[in-house]
Specification:
Elements: E1 2-12, E2 15-21, E3 26-32, H1 38-50, E4 73-82, E5 85-94, E6 100-107, E7 113-116, H2 118-129, H3 133-137, E8 141-142, H4 149-152, H5 155-165, H6 169-178, H7 182-301, H8 305-384, H9 395-432, H10 435-497, H11 506-519, H12 525-553, H13 561-592, H14 599-652, H15 667-683, H16 686-727, H17 738-750, H18 756-784, H19 793-826, H20 828-843, E9 851-853, E10 860-864, E11 869-872, H21 878-896, E12 907-911, H22 919-930, H23 933-937, E13 940-945, E14 956-961, E15 964-968, E16 982-983
Parallel strand pairs: 3-13, 3-14, 8-12, 12-13
Antiparallel strand pairs: 1-2, 1-4, 4-5, 5-6, 6-7, 9-10, 10-11, 14-15, 15-16
Helix pairs in contact: 6-19, 7-14, 7-15, 7-16, 7-17, 7-18, 7-19, 8-10, 8-11, 8-12, 8-13, 8-14, 9-10, 9-19, 10-19, 20-21
Length: about 1000
């Protein structure tokens, strides 16, 4: 069994320098406030065992985060015992440098063995322990807020942990040995690829020869088609030349008429432009007259500007005087009110000052009474601690139960080792002869042995529980005396903290307690504390009111109240005198301006005056703008008149008999001129004649384009014929004439070339097949790194078949090994359920007594009496769910750490499991750890908690403060096993 012996930590996170020695049998309670370093003790043990931070600390590659702030290095020393061997592990982390791991193994009667280096130390520890950090975190290390860790594991991860915990390493090694590696699969794939390449080398030449024959026939068919097409194009060219000559003659006849019609169209456009210009000139004339009228009106409006400016200045002066008068009235009222307020607050200030003085004196008396009451309570604790329990042990019964447990353990070891040896024999026989013959026999034998091993396992668990129960009772009787001493030490420390001496006898202490009770008038601590809190709250409120009155009155000294009141009264009288002198003057100015003497009326008058001034300024700006607008319109009028004349003269150049231009011409004259031009245009044919000319031109262009296209097609076809004739094995001349094409066409028609559609289909199929085979051939050669190498088809196929058979045999062996290992691990689930059903009623105080697990996910379902069936865990409250998860974690630890292994951990850590438990649930868990199933199964139990726990239920207690040991009653030397209550490094014991 593995026991913790000693832990030394220096500058590890918030832990400064601590050293703890652990007895072989202990129930240890670790307490302290948040951030005191309790959980860091838990992590220091894990780091000492495996050299890694917990998963919650992030990446394990950078351990510098574990060094205390502003320190260069951290050190953790951990000593553990396993049978007759002692392991001393030393791990030193140096900031920004290489870490140093050391391991010393001591055996009775032999020299110590030293292992140095990070990797060797970690590997040796895991080999000796038989499990890694992840396996420990799934069983004996119950982390804070990770009660559901086991339920969150995937099945492969859980099976990996079980293999390490159950010492199935040899089966795992055999499974790994038989498992087909990736490189072996790649080698088999390569042999298959060689066989496929050999097949391609055999098939490809036949398909290539067939493709050449089909392409030869298709070449002759394409040549025949090209010759026929070339002859057709030559005949079409002769026809198109005749059509082009006829269209060219029609185009020449229509060209002269089109030119005359275009001149008439341009003249009509000029007449229209001249008429539009004349209309625009008449419109500009009307706009010009309107602008001149607005300009005259704006000049007349600007004559009232000086009168408005004078009124605006007078209104501003009046506004200033009225505003000043309002300020004087406000100052008069403020000073009068201020004088009245000062007189009222002076009396309240005096009364409150006297009340505060009385309350302060009474508060001091109550605080002295509370201190005396605490001394009385400390004396009562000191009197209660004056007793010593008897010491009694049961060593004979414990020894007898241990002998029975060892006997069952030896039988189980023989079963497990025989199971592994028989499995190896079956696998080797299967590889050599036939897996199909031996597989049923092997599986039946393995199942029988596994059933026998599971039966012995349960017997061993019951024997271990009996030993643990006897040892727990013996320890509880032997450790009561030490608990009593710790309680007496606590009472003395509290008396010293309150400044009271230690009484000579219990009678003296009791007499003083009676005297204190008489002075308290039999009041309880809660009553005194309530009076104290009420008086202090009243005093705080009175001081706050006193300060607020002083602040409102702005008087630091109450003696100055009368002087302050007189000053404010004089200021109010002065303001009244000034107001009486200025009010008549302001009223006179207001009557002159015909307004009332108030701020709102004067502001409205100012705004009205400013609006009138702004309107006049705007009219003045409009006058300047209108002047510019008149000039611009006059220029536009002259421009439009000139344009109308120019356009008219341009149109008259085409029709000379029209009227000569003069300014008296009207819009009707322009319209009559345009109609005359339109009549002459229509007489020449109009738009129809133009459309006919355009159609002739378009048709001629289309014919010429088509002829050029056919000429190019003919040249391309003759080029194709020139190219294909040598391939057909026929002579050809430098230029092929029409008669030579006719002769060649007759010869090709006489040949029997087969069905073209059928040949095209065969060609497409052969091309696709040959290209596919060529691509596959190139890819396989590139994949194998071969180029031009000829392969033997039969030899490649035989080599692949032989290799595939060997791998199939190994794969069957791996399946058999995996099946045997899984059947052994599957026994863990029934054992876990047995323990879970025994733990669940204890931890829930008989509220729940049955549960079941999903063998794939380990999800919990609990029997709910009120619901009448098994219910999912997630429907219960948070505290109840934590109870179920914790029960599963503890049951799994009991089922997977059998005592017969000899190297199983005999310690368990629980980090803050009580955070979400109420008092009743917490008591149930404490009972389980100190007297129940867990207490009987583990020699060393560590409970870390910041909530209140009855320390008398534990054999030892450690109190943490600011990374140090504030109190510990663990032994000073792990070899003595003697417990001494000592204070660490001058830190006094504090009552929780």
């Amino acid at each position: 069994m593995i026991h913790l012996k000693r832990l030394y930590v220096n500058n590890f996170k918030q832990l400064q320098e601590i050293e703890l020695h652990f007895p072989a049998h202990a129930r240890i309670l670790v307490q302290g406030k948040n951030e005191a370093g309790k959980s860091t003790l838990f992590e220091a043990v894990f780091f000492g065992l495996f050299g890694a931070a917990l998963a919650t600390e992030g990446s394990a590659r950078n351990l510098d985060a574990l060094i205390a702030y502003e320190k260069e290095k951290a050190r953790v020393e951990l000593e553990i015992a396993s049978g007759t061997r002692t392991f001393k592990i030393t791990r030193t982390i140096i900031r920004d440098k290489a870490n140093q791991w050391q391991l010393d193994i001591s055996r009775a009667g032999s020299a110590p063995e030293e292992i140095r280096g990070n990797t060797p130390v970690n590997k040796r520890l895991i080999d000796e322990l038989g499990f890694d950090g992840e396996a420990l975190l799934n069983t004996c290390f119950v982390e804070q807020k990770k009660l559901e860790k086991l339920e969150g594991l995937s099945r492969p991860k859980r099976e990996e942990s079980l293999a390490k915990l159950l010492n199935l390493d040899r089966l795992v090694d055999l499974e790994t040995e038989f498992k087909i590696r990736a490189e072996e699969k790649q080698s088999l794939d390569r042999l298959l690829t060689r066989a496929e390449l050999a097949d391609l080398q055999f098939e490809l030449p036949q398909h290539q020869e067939n493709l050449r024959q089909v392409e030869s026939q298709l070449t002759l068919i394409d040549l025949r088609g090209a010759v026929e097409s070339a002859l057709n194009e030559l005949r079409a060219l002769e026809i198109m030349d005749a059509e082009i000559r006829a269209l060219a003659a029609q185009r020449d006849a229509a060209t002269q008429r089109v030119e005359q019609m275009n001149q008439l169209r341009e003249a009509m456009s000029n007449v229209k432009d001249a008429r539009d210009a004349l209309e625009r000139a008449e419109e500009i004339t009307r706009e010009l007259e309107h602008a001149r009228a607005e300009f005259a009106e704006a000049n007349r409006a600007t004559m009232d500007a000086p009168n408005l400016k004078t009124r605006a200045n007078n209104l501003r002066h009046l506004f200033h005087h009225v505003t000043r008068l309002d300020q004087i009235r406000a100052a008069e009222n403020t000073n009068a009110q201020r004088a009245q307020l000062v007189a009222q607050n002076a009396t309240r200030l005096n009364d409150l000052s006297a009340s505060v003085a009385r309350d302060e004196k009474e508060l001091a008396q109550l605080e002295n009474q509370l201190r005396e009451y605490e001394i009385g309570e400390a004396l009562g604790e000191w009197i209660a601690a004056q007793r010593a329990p008897a010491d009694e042990t049961g060593e004979d019964a414990i020894a007898e139960k241990k002998i029975a447990r060892e006997k069952i353990a030896r039988q189980l070891r023989l079963q497990v080792y025989g199971l592994a040896a028989l499995l190896v024999v079956f696998i080797l026989a299967a590889i050599g002869i036939s897996a199909l013959i031996f597989a049923p026999l092997a599986l039946a034998t393995l199942g029988l042995l596994a059933f026998r091993a599971s039966t012995l396992w349960r017997d061993l668990a019951r024997a271990s529980e009996a030993v643990g129960r006897a040892e727990g009772h013996a320890l509880a009787r032997g450790e009561s005396n030490e608990s009593q001493r710790a309680r007496l030490q606590d009472a003395r420390a509290r008396l010293a903290q309150l400044g009271a001496g230690i009484p000579e006898t219990s009678e003296v202490a009791q007499a003083r307690r009676v005297l204190i009770a008489r002075e308290m008038k039999n009041k309880t601590s809660a009553e005194l504390r309530g009076e104290h809190d009420a008086l202090r709250e009243r005093l705080v409120n009175a001081r706050a009111v006193l300060g607020e009155l002083a602040r409102q009155s702005q008087i630091a000294d109450p003696a100055n109240v009368e002087r302050e009141k007189n000053i404010n009264a004089r200021k109010a009288a002065k303001a009244k005198e000034i107001r009486a002198r200025w009010e008549p003057r302001v009223e006179k100015i207001a009557r002159t301006l015909d307004v009332r003497a108030d701020v709102a009326t004067i502001q409205r008058a100012v705004f009205q005056n400013e609006a009138q001034a702004e309107q006049i300024n705007r009219r003045a700006r409009d006058a300047a703008r209108l002047q510019e607008e008149i000039s611009r319109r006059e220029e536009q009028l002259a421009s439009q008149s000139a344009r109308a004349r120019q356009m008219y003269e341009n149109a008259r150049a085409v029709k000379a008999d029209a009227l000569a231009w003069n300014p008296a011409l009207t819009l009707d004259d322009y319209t009559a001129f345009g109609k005359a031009l339109r009549a002459e245009y229509d007489s020449l044919g109009g738009e129809a004649a133009l459309q006919a000319a355009r159609e002739i031109e378009n048709e001629l262009g289309r014919k010429e384009g088509e002829r050029a296209t056919r000429e190019r097609n003919t040249a391309e076809l003759i080029a194709q014929i020139q190219e294909r004739l040598p391939a057909a094995g026929r002579p050809l001349s430098a230029t092929i004439a029409a008669d030579e094409l006719n002769s060649l066409a007759e010869k090709l028609r006489a040949m029997d070339l087969g069905d073209e559609a059928e040949l095209r289909g065969q060609h497409r199929e052969l091309v696709g097949r040959v290209r596919s085979l060529e691509d596959q051939h190139a890819n396989l050669e590139r994949e194998l790194g071969l180029s031009g190498e000829a392969l033997n088809r039969d030899e490649c196929r035989a080599t692949y078949a032989q290799t595939a058979r060997q791998l199939q045999v190994r794969e069957r062996g791996a399946e058999m090994t995996q099946l045997a290992r899984r059947r052994i691990m599957q026994k863990v689930l029934p054992a876990t359920m047995d323990y879970l059903r025994r733990i669940l009623p204890q931890i829930t105080r008989d509220r729940y007594y049955d549960a079941r697990l999903d063998d794939e996910t380990y999800k919990i379902q609990v029997w709910d009496e009120r619901g009448g069936g098994f219910k999912e865990k997630n429907i219960f409250s948070g505290g109840t769910r934590d109870q179920f998860s914790l029960a599963l974690r503890l049951a799994f630890a009991l089922a997977t750490l059998p005592q017969e292994r000899g190297a199983a951990p005999s310690f368990i850590f629980l980090d803050e499991p009580l955070g979400s438990f109420d008092s009743e649930r917490a008591e149930a868990l404490i009972y389980l750890l100190t007297e129940g199933e867990i207490a009987r199964a583990f020699d060393q139990i560590f409970l870390i908690s910041h909530v209140h726990v009855d320390e008398r239920l534990f054999t030892h207690r450690v109190l943490m403060e600011n990374g140090k040991i504030a109190f510990s009653n663990l032994p000073n030397d792990s070899t003595t096993g003697v417990t001494e209550g000592t204070e660490k490094k001058r830190t006094s014991l504090k009552r929780e």
